[in-house]
Amino acid sequence: MNRCEEPTSRIDSYLDGELRGDALEAFNRHIKECRSCRRELTERRQFLEEIRAARPLYAPSARFRADIAALLAAPVAGSGTTSEQRDAIGFVTKDYVSFWLLSFRRKFIPAFVACTLAIAGIVTLWRVSQRDARANAFVDLAVETHRQQLAGHLPLEIRTNSSVEVSTWFAGKVPFRFRLPASQETPGQPQRYEVIGGTLINLRGKRGAYIAYRMRAETISLVVTSASTSVASGGEVTVSKGLTFHTHRKGELQVVTWSVHNLTYALVSNVNVPARQSCAVCHASAKERDLIRNFRILNKQKAGGNNIGARVLFTLRDEKHRRNKL
Amino acid sequence: MHRVGTNSKNDQTTDRSIRERALHHLDGLYGYAMTLTRNQAEAEDLVQETYLRAMQAFERLRPDSNLKSWLFTILRNVRLNQVRGGMRKSRLVEMDDPDGGTRQFEDKSSKDPFFSYLAKVKRADVRKAIEELPAAYREIIVLREFEELSYGEIAQVLDCPPGTVMSRLSRAREKLKEMLQHWSSAIGEAANEAGQ
């Protein structure tokens, strides 16, 4: 072994404990004989120790550590893994549908395409009408639930200020996997709102989740259901960070609905501001300001309308352009 | 392989033991999540989601399985799904966030004030250099140098061949060394100029 050709990578592998057997013996023999490699080994070891001395870059807060400890101490309802979980854990699902489509396409493409288009058109029209009907019903149910809570007719089955505990409590009680964000507050700033608890509710014969928040003296209601029960639709449409929000006015109440990850949410409050500004009522911290600024209003329409066409009234790019002109 | 069928009457004890072991990896998972997201709230969500998914599969985890690399693999897969879904994009991290917790700089190793100061400066430089590395280099440095995962374990987490791990790690280290040397020489020149 020529000592001058000993690669740094082998020295690194040695220091990382990755050399074994003959390779390790050969390296040890070489190091005994080669002064330059011994010097290189010493320098390399010192360099890696300096890097390791810099850890940790980050450490979780005591609050988050307590949340995770509570989460791990909680029982888990249901032992089956969903397809999403299997994907995350590293499982591969075979696509049998692709196989059948491949065998079909040689002989039946023209007729198949024509029939599919016709059926798809009919089904789309029917589904749009059904979707909007379900969306309006969901908004009405959310408003009714909120009013029951305000009137004291909807007792909370779990009362806690921990979003993790609320999420854990719902696990297995509702037919969907559901999790509230672990953190909403911004360090150094007063918390604008806090969770106060949750309970199960009946939505079109299916179980849904109701979570109550308190902001100052006001109660804000969050209703969650699976997207198979209802999807967000209608109202004034705004888009931010890939999420589409639908804002509805129901008397003195404002309802914001959105669908993501196969779940549909409705947030009911007495906030009386334009849709684009409503999120800023709770999310006004420095960290969240960029999210609010990215809001785009796609169109204004009456609740229950079907016009989802995009008429961009405001974009961040427009705002920058306006600033440049000024 | 991590998953096996289980019918043991000791399942509950095993499950509790795995949960306790899983909690020991919180610091590492959080550090890795911060490396990937560079945002405290997103990192907390990512770690919470990782534990929630892991809990669903604990009962099928063999007691002698490599829990640490398995948790890191789940975390990375969850993050990839989030990024692919386009729902979360990395925002600029607020590096000067004074909140307790996100960064630790205290020096407890040396009692000599001068060496303590030098060590502190050095560690701050290393941290800054790591944070300025390209994402793929930063990730592999954290997994190897901070979490001390083996090449094989890193290959599992990153879903790539061990050879790729070796070459990427080597390039990341060289880049880090280059940055630190550049800073050291710049500081030296500045000190000389100040002395003159």
- The number of strands of chain A is 9
The helical percent of chain B reads 55-70%
- N- to C-terminal separation of chain A? 70 Å
- Structural class category of chain A: alpha+beta
The CATH superfamily of the largest domain in chain A is MucB/RseB, C-terminal domain
Q: H/E order of the elements of chain B?
A: HHHHHHHH
**Fraction in beta strands of chain A:** 15-25%
Q: How many structural domains does the protein architecture of chain B include? A: 2
Strand percent estimate of chain B = under 5%
Please describe what this structure looks like.
The complex is a heterodimer of chains A (326) and B (196). Chain A has 2 domains: 9-53, no CATH class; 138-325, 2-Layer Sandwich (Phosphorylase Kinase, domain 1), CATH 3.30.200.100. In chain A, 45% of the residues lie in helices and 19% in strands. Chain A has helices spanning 8-15, 21-33, 35-53, 62-73, 83-89, 96-150, 163-170, 275-282, 286-293, 316-325; strands spanning 158-159, 194-203, 206-215, 218-226, 236-240, 243-250, 253-260, 263-269, 296-299. In chain A, strands 1-2-3-4-8-7-6-5-9 form a 9-stranded antiparallel beta sheet, with helices on both faces. In chain A, helix 1 crosses helix 3 (35-53). Chain A starts with 7 loop residues before the first helix and ends with a helix. Chain B has 2 domains: 11-85, RNA polymerase sigma factor, region 2, helix turn helix motif (Rna Polymerase Sigma Factor, Chain: A), CATH 1.10.1740; 113-195, Arc Repressor Mutant, subunit A (Orthogonal Bundle). The chains are: A alpha+beta (326), B mainly alpha (196).
Which helices and strands occur, and which strands form pairs?
The complex is a heterodimer of chains A (326) and B (196).
Chain A: H1 8-15, H2 21-33, H3 35-53, H4 62-73, H5 83-89, H6 96-150, E1 158-159, H7 163-170, E2 194-203, E3 206-215, E4 218-226, E5 236-240, E6 243-250, E7 253-260, E8 263-269, H8 275-282, H9 286-293, E9 296-299, H10 316-325
Antiparallel strand pairs in A: 1-2, 2-3, 3-4, 4-8, 5-6, 5-9, 6-7, 7-8
Chain B: H1 11-24, H2 26-37, H3 40-57, H4 67-85, H5 113-132, H6 135-146, H7 151-158, H8 162-195
Helix pairs in contact in B: 2-3, 2-4, 2-6, 3-4, 4-7, 5-8, 6-8, 7-8
